[in-house]
Fold:
Amino acid sequence: MSQIQVQAPGLLTTVQDLGREGFGLMGVSASGAADPIALRLGNRLVGNADGTAGLEMTLLGGTFLLPQGAVVALAGSDFTANLDGVPVELWTSVKISPGQKLSLGHTRSGSRCYLCVQGGVAVDPSKAIPQAKSMEEYAKLNPGMSGAATVSGGKGAAKKAAAIDAKK
Structure:
């Protein structure tokens, strides 16, 4: 299993899929991607099923190191991404070589950008609510990222790199 090392989390980065239905009576919202169309299209670009979990970034992207390499796609808003200083286009799959660094800046349009990784993003099953990997911020459901609910630049910011498993 390859990993994504989060070197800088951006403003708010969470694991999101298309959410969960049927838990409202228990007080659990559907959650899921804020822009489900972008997540679906990003997943298709890397050969994943539509509902595969990815990283959702809000307003400001992060910096990610992929030690084993991966095939990724960025979908949604333009966060001025670059791979080792070379601009990366939205809406296309990109093969990242081992050790390359993907950096995303602030949004140029919209508010959400999705980092979709071929094979998806793994969430610790012991912390997952059934039927989804989506993080639900207010209820703190589905931590997923090395035990942290979010990798966030705000309150409770990650002080060191967090590792996220990307299924291979």
Observations:
- The chain has one domain: 2-19+30-154.
- The radius of gyration is 14 Å.
